[in-house]
Each structure stands twice: as structure tokens, then as C-alpha cells.
């Protein structure tokens, strides 16, 4: 088999090896079934069990209480950028508040603007999106339809340590790049959604956790594929669902439950990885620097810069030569970014730290 490198890609991103290996083993025929997951009917008993198990695993890991639905939708996180305002802003006679902490929030706002009035309740643009707001600085409208946040801004590497308080207004969260990385108090959320390809599975499936009262509130005049109510009623099976994606979410969440032990344990490992990396950066006397301010730093995406941008090229090249891949930062922030999602082993971060220390010593 081809040797795997340490893949620091922001997404699609590294998946747990045991999940990939099981998918590989069972790809041509599911055990006891004799048919591939890629060939089986989404109405079969086998797939029904797979989607039910994926949901049960998510409920267990995220401690999702009764009164919430779990949906598996398509169209990625950006489809949710549209579906949320189509269901809850258009025709609501209210505006919606968006807390803007980076590039993905900006795209969510652009999509919502096509459906109704958007208020930006806070905008981190002045400091190039390097921190999340203090509660006191939020300009929230108590009558808004919902408040939207991006729990982890994948490009800037800025993460909310805890949820903002939105009172009685439903909190809607794009958790695409930190879902399943730590425990979250689901009760604080009206909707939590995440595309799978950062931390939960392959591209093509989107996890949506939505409170029952919001499902009920979803209007009847939407095309069924864009309606939370219709999708919930059809148990995510209105049309052919992303069968393979749901299957992979089941395998990834099996790994989280059986091998890792749950989200407390996962968060501890993620904290350790992020701390290791930030220690090297903070200890480099300015050779490297983290984009995000302390207190807002992401455990999933460490966006960092080299003081001399002319060294970016050699840094990335030499890293790649050691099997440390996909460390280039997003063009809007520049520099480098190490995405260290759940499935990135501690050893991968260890190797990256060693390389960074050496590179700094040689080039400072
Ligand atoms: C990757 C990402 C998206 C975009 O997801 P798609 O599935 O490509 O639409 C949106 N939000 C965040 C926070 C992301 O990390």
C-alpha cells in the first residue's frame, strides 16, 4: 500500500485510519450482505441500520437531548448558509443577527442577504479577524429571527471558546470545522450544522442538529429539498441520500466512541496538539507568529506566519519533503496553516514541531 503522509489540509481533511481501513475491507461487500455500500438501496434494511447507527452515535457523542432532530443533508455547509435564511428569515418580518468572525461568516451573510434583512451584530474585520467578541461588545437585537455564528473560522484559525448568550433568540452555528472536536452544550443551540469533510467524514453529507420547534416553524411553501420540515418528516430520505457519506460518518463516530472514548477525551488530545504547536510558535521569539489572539485560538486550525514571507516557500517545500503536507495558508491570511483535526495523530504534530524548531534554528 502507498505510504500515507501527515496531511494538514483544511478540508477535505485527514480521516481516522481505522475508519478508512474498514471502509476498504468492506468496500466490495458489506459483511453478511454481499453488496457494496456503493451499490445498496437507501431503502434497504442494511442502510436503514447504518443511518440509524450514525444518528445514534452522534446523539451519544454530542449528548443530543430529546427535542432535537438529526438530519443528514446534501449541498455542504454552504447549502445551510442558504437554507437557514430561506426557512427562518424570508417572510419572518424580522431581521437576523450575524456575528462575523472570519471568511466563512462572510459567505453565510452573503447568502442570507438574498433572503432578508441581515444585521451584523459584530464584525472582527478591523483586526483582520483575529479574535472572537466579548459578550459585552455584541450588538444583538432581542427580536431577531436567529443569531448566526461560525464556531471555528477555518481560514483565520479563530474559535469561540464558549457560546455567546443570545437569550431567547435561537443560536444557529456553522460548526463545520470543529464538530465532534469537543463536547458542546447542544441545549444552547437552535441549529448546529456542519459539512462532514473537516472532522466527520467525506464531502457530500452535512450534519444538521435542529430543535423541534424550529422544524415546526419551517414554512410550508418551500421546495421539499430545501425545507427542514420536509426533510425531518422524510427522515433525511426524501431523495437518495449521500449513502457513502453517512456510512463513513458511522465509521468515524464508531472510532470516536470505541477507540477515543468520547468527546471529553478527544478534546483533551486536541488541546494537547494545539498547545504543542503554539508553544513552538510562541517560543520562537517572533520567527513564527499565530494569527489568532490568545483566548480566540482554534484547536483545529493553527494559522501562523513566518516573519519573513520569503521563507514561506522553502518552509512548505522542506516540510513536504518530510511528509508534512498541505501546510499552505489561505491567500486571504497568507503564511501557513496547520489543520490538526481529530484524526491528525499526536505524532504528526510532534514531527511538525520538530521540523519547525529545526527550520527556525537554521534560518533565523
Ligand atoms: C469548509 C467550511 C465551509 C464550506 O463547506 P462546504 O461543504 O464546502 O460548503 C463552511 N464553513 C466552514 C466553517 C468551513 O470550514
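^ Assign residues to that structure.
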Amino acid at each position: 500500500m502507498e505510504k500515507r503522509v501527515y496531511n494538514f489540509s483544511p478540508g477535505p481533511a485527514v480521516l481516522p485510519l481505522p475508519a478508512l481501513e474498514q471502509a476498504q475491507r468492506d468496500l466490495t461487500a458489506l459483511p453478511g450482505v454481499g453488496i457494496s455500500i456503493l451499490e445498496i438501496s437507501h431503502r434497504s434494511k442494511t442502510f436503514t441500520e447504518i443511518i440509524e447507527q450514525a444518528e445514534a452515535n452522534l446523539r451519544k457523542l454530542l449528548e443530543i437531548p430529546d427535542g432535537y432532530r438529526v438530519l443528514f443533508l446534501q449541498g455542504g455547509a454552504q447549502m445551510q448558509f442558504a437554507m437557514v435564511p430561506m426557512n427562518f428569515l424570508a417572510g419572518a418580518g424580522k431581521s437576523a443577527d450575524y456575528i462575523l468572525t472570519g471568511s466563512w461568516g462572510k459567505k453565510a451573510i452573503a447568502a442570507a442577504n438574498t433572503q432578508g434583512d441581515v444585521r451584523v451584530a459584530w464584525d472582527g474585520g478591523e483586526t483582520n479577524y483575529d479574535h472572537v467578541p466579548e459578550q459585552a461588545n455584541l450588538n444583538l437585537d432581542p427580536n431577531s429571527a436567529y443569531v448566526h455564528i461560525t464556531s471555528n473560522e477555518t481560514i483565520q484559525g479563530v474559535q469561540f471558546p464558549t457560546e455567546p448568550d443570545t437569550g431567547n433568540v435561537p443560536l444557529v452555528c456553522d460548526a463545520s470545522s470543529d464538530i465532534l472536536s469537543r463536547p458542546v452544550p447542544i441545549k444552547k443551540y437552535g441549529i448546529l450544522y456542519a459539512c462532514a469533510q473537516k472532522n466527520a467524514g467525506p464531502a457530500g453529507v452535512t450534519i444538521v442538529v435542529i430543535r423541534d420547534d424550529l422544524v415546526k416553524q419551517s414554512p410550508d411553501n418551500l421546495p421539499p429539498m430545501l425545507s427542514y420540515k420536509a426533510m425531518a418528516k422524510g427522515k433525511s430520505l426524501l431523495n437518495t441520500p449521500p449513502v457513502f457519506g453517512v456510512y463513513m460518518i458511522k465509521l468515524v463516530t464508531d472510532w470516536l466512541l470505541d477507540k477515543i472514548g468520547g468527546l471529553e477525551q478527544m478534546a483533551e488530545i486536541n488541546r494537547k496538539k494545539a498547545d504543542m504547536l503554539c508553544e513552538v510558535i510562541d517560543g520562537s521569539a517572533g520567527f513564527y507568529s499565530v494569527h489568532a489572539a490568545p483566548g480566540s485560538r482554534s484547536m483545529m486550525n493553527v494559522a501562523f506566519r513566518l516573519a519573513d514571507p520569503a521563507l514561506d516557500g522553502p518552509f512548505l517545500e522542506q516540510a513536504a519533503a518530510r511528509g508534512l503536507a498541505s501546510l499552505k495558508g489561505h491567500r486571504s491570511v497568507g503564511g501557513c496553516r496547520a489543520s490538526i483535526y481529530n484524526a491528525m495523530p499526536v505524532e504528526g504534530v510532534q514531527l511538525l514541531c520538530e521540523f519547525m524548531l529545526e527550520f527556525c534554528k537554521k534560518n533565523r
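DSSP finds ten helices and 14 strands in the chain.
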